[in-house]
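Narrative of activities, Objective 1.

The group set out to show that a structural description can be obtained from nothing but a protein's sequence at a throughput compatible with the screening campaign. Below is one input-output pair from the validation batch, recorded exactly as produced.
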Amino acid sequence: MTAEKTDIVIIGAGVIGLAVAEELSKKKPGPSIVLIDKNEAFGRETSSRNSEVIHAGIYYPAGSLKARLCVEGKELLYQFCSRWEIPHRRCGKLIVASTAEEKASLAELFERAAANGVDDLQELNGEQVKRLEPHIRADYALFSPSTGIINSHSLMARLEQNARENGVLPAYCHLVTAIEALGADSGWRVHFQNPDGSADILDCRYLVNCAGLQAETIAACCGINTKAAGYRLHLCKGEYFSLPQSRAGLVNRLIYPPPLYELTGLGIHATITLDGRLRLGPNTVYIEEEDYSVNPTHRAEFHRAVKSFLPFVREEELEPEMAGIRPKLSGPGEPFRDFLISEESGRGLPGLINLLGIESPGLTCALSIARLVAGLVE
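Output recorded for this entry:
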C-alpha cells in the first residue's frame, strides 16, 4: 500500500483540533493539513457537551497553562466572535457566599484571580448582589463582568469553514487504527480505516494529538508509556438538569458556588443559555466507560447543591438535560493537574505534539492553545 503524504495530520475535530487547524493553515504559503476524526462531523464529544461558558481565568493556579491561556484565550475568543458574528453574550458571573468559610474562600479566589491578570473582578456585599440578581440569596459575592456564554457549535462551524478555505482537508468517519514513527526526523505514518471499512495510510511530518477523550490512546499508539509519563486520562462525567421555561429570566447572569477542593469541578452552578433557558450543572462523577446518560435520581443532589443560593428552585421541576465527559489527568482525590501540551522530541519522538487533559477551560482557551501549538510546529 502506497502512503499519501501531507505536512501535518491533526487527530480530533473538537474545538481544539479545529482551532489548531485554522491557526496552522493561516500561514501563506501554508502547509498541507489533514484533520482526522472518527465521528461523522466535528465536535461530537466534549466540545458539544459543556456549559458553553467563556471563563475569565479566575480559578487556576498562577503561572499554570490554564490560567495563562484562559486569560489570553478569553480576549481572543471575544475578538473572534465579534469579527465572525458568533452568537455570544458577555453576561457576567457571580460567585456567591453565605457563610464565613465560603467568604474566606472567595477572598483567596480574589487574590488568585489578580495574580492571574484578571483585573475586573469586583467584591459585592449582600445588598449589591440583591440589586443585580433579586432572586438569588447571598451575603457576599465576586462579580466577574468579563465571563460570558457562547454558541459553541457556531464557533466550531466558523473555525472549520476558515480552515477549509485555507486548504485544510477534514476527514470525518476516519478511525485511526495504528501509528508508526518513521524514524530520524522522517515523521509519522498514520494507519486509518475509511468510512467504507477499507484500510489506508497517510505519512506526515507533524502529528498533532487533539483526540480529547481518546488522547491517551493516541499517545500510547505513538509509543509512549502513558502511565509512566503521567499521561493517564480519567473519564469524569458531568450531568445537567434544566428548569422549565417559566423560570427563564429569574437570573440574568451565571451563578456559581465557591469552587470545589482541588478544582475537581467548579461546583453545580446555574448557567443561562443564549435563548434564555436556565440549567444547573455539572456534577462530578468519575466513570470507567463513556456514558452520556443522566441519572434522574440525581435530581435531589442538584437541588441540595443550589437551594441555599437559588431558593426559588423546586426539586420536582428539575428535568434531566444532557451529560458531558471531561478528559481529566487527575483521578478521584488527586491534586490539580494542568493542561499537558508537549512537543515530544525529548522522548525521541520529534514532530509529535500531544495535548492531554484539555478539560475546562478548554473552550475558552481554544484559540490561545492553537497559537501555542503553532509555535511548537514552527
